[in-house]
Amino acid sequence: MDYIVDTLTGLVNSMGFSSLDWRNYVMIVVALVFLYLAIKKEYEPLLLVPIAFGMLLVNIYPPIMQEGGLLHYFYLGDEYGLWPSIIFLGVGAMTDFGPLIANPKSFLLGAAAQFGIFAAYLGAIIMLPILRDFEGAKSILNGVDIDGAAAAISIIGGADGPTSIFLASKLAPGLMGTIAVAAYSYMSLVPIIQPPIMKALTTEEERKIKMEQLRPVTKLEKIIFPIVVTIVVVLILPDTAPLVGMLMLGNLFRESGVVKQLTETASNALMYIVVIMLGTSVGATTSGESFLNLTTVAVVILGLVAFCFGTAAGVLFGKLMCKLSGGKINPLIGSAGVSAVPMAARVSQKVGAEADPTNFLLMHAMGPNVAGVIGTAVVAGTFLAIFGK
């Protein structure tokens, strides 16, 4: 009889219920909400499904993220900056830089949208020292370099998950899970967050502006562009080499036309394999014990502020360019200066089409969108050069 009781007791104790607390159950609910948004609402499902499932797994079975656990080894790719760089390779292989080459002014809109990053950096510099005095944040922020952590948090404003992970792995490893989840969450919510800001800052007449068709871009221009960008950017900011270098290598695969197998692999199989490993491992950093605290709340708030400021700055700079061009530039394309490719460009198209169904802004918005990817990587490299030594 004792044997049966001991066996049943051991079985009960081995169940997941015995080792979980209320925070794990809260995170399980959050994971289920993310899965709903990804599957039902189709908000960035390629990202949210693996992230949400990794979140679910680690809060049901925490050892899966400990040394020896499956997702621990996936996480090493995040920690060493491997997965973000490979994703940039895939993004480059999938992206047509033609709209940016055809309209170099798009670089200015991409740069303007980075304003949100610096606004969030200033906010983090103020907020993080205050959080250190609260019991719920002491264990995470003690010993953390405030400048580096602020820089890592602020990159969320670029709406670029891989860059956020890359910078956090270098400057604030303890906050990487929180930063990554916030960045990818805001990327998936681009269609919800951006339109109200865009409409509030533009008039209906501005939203109806039709832009002239972009000039044709030659194959030679498309081949030279990634080479020149790599040389110029990496010589000025060597720390951008992993991200900018891989982005441009992927694009060179695409535009050269002589390595179709490499282009197909980088933009499909390889990229999606890495998305699985990156997404699940990022989600697995959000155990209830480490995620539910004041620092997480601060990161999420600062990330939202950064993203909203970045969108607003892009639109406002677009309005300025509209005035200077005599009404030839639709300010809506400025919102695409954040790095969420190609979703931010699609949002510009959608809002413009709501004002005038015959208006086609997608290709014009792709210029600032691609410029935003490069701009966010440049800002990350700048922060890394300043705070990473």
Describe the fold and architecture:
The chain is mainly α. The chain is 74% helix and 0% strand. It contains 22 helices and no strands. The chain has helices at residues 2-14, 22-39, 45-60, 70-79, 82-94, 98-102, 106-112, 115-131, 135-141, 146-154, 161-171, 176-188, 190-201, 204-207, 219-236, 241-256, 260-267, 269-283, 288-291, 294-324, 343-355, 362-387. Helix 15 runs antiparallel to helix 16. It starts with a helix and ends with a helix. The model has no long low-confidence stretch (mean pLDDT 89).
How would the blueprint of this fold be written?
Elements: H1 2-14, H2 22-39, H3 45-60, H4 70-79, H5 82-94, H6 98-102, H7 106-112, H8 115-131, H9 135-141, H10 146-154, H11 161-171, H12 176-188, H13 190-201, H14 204-207, H15 219-236, H16 241-256, H17 260-267, H18 269-283, H19 288-291, H20 294-324, H21 343-355, H22 362-387
Q: Roughly what fraction of the amino acids lie in strands?
A: under 5%
Largest sheet geometry: none
Could you list the spans in which at least 5 consecutive residues all have pLDDT below 50? none
What's the helical proportion of residues? over 70%
Shape: globular
Distance between the termini: 64 Å
Key attributes of the depicted protein:
22 helices; globular; mainly alpha; 0% strand
Summarize the structure.
This protein is mostly helical. 74% of the residues lie in helices and 0% in strands.
